[in-house]
Known about the structure:
By secondary structure, the protein is α+β, with helices and mostly antiparallel strands. Helix content is about 50%, strand content about 20%. A hairpin with a 2-residue loop joins strand 4 (about 130-140) and strand 5 (about 140-145). The longest helix is centred in the middle third of the chain and has 27 residues, at about 50-80. The relative contact order is 0.09.
Amino acid sequence: MIDWINDFGWIIWLTVFLLLAVAEMLTLNLYFILMSVGALAALVAYLFHAELWLQIVIFCVVALATTVLIRPLALAHLHRGPADQLSNIDRLIGHNAVVLETVGMGGGLVKIGGDIWTARIAGGSEIPVGAAVEVSAIEGATAIVNHPAAHNNPAGTATTTA
């Protein structure tokens, strides 16, 4: 068995590298890709005819070093951005929407931009189909909406112009 490992160790290290790379693609947490760098370093050590114990040590040291030294820098780079940068959902607050299905306290449907969202009203009476509303909040996958006139006219009375 040891003779086979000595003869075909490159297959083992290449397999370990590929398995760790696939695991990284599935998890995206930057651990497995750095461990796969250790497997590549062990593969290089094998190609330079290093002993098996040395290959394993190189794998462990490189995997640990890259995880401790490179991962924090990579995460900081990935999470870099303005502190006030809004997420996709936060950008929807304040947008206008069109009611597709009557919206009440129990729910309804609105179209925000090109997307259809479940919605419910923040307060007041039901909003009929075709009415323009404004998104005041997002709770999970539900948009909380109210009439745009409700902000301009808090008493809820209709304004008429002569």
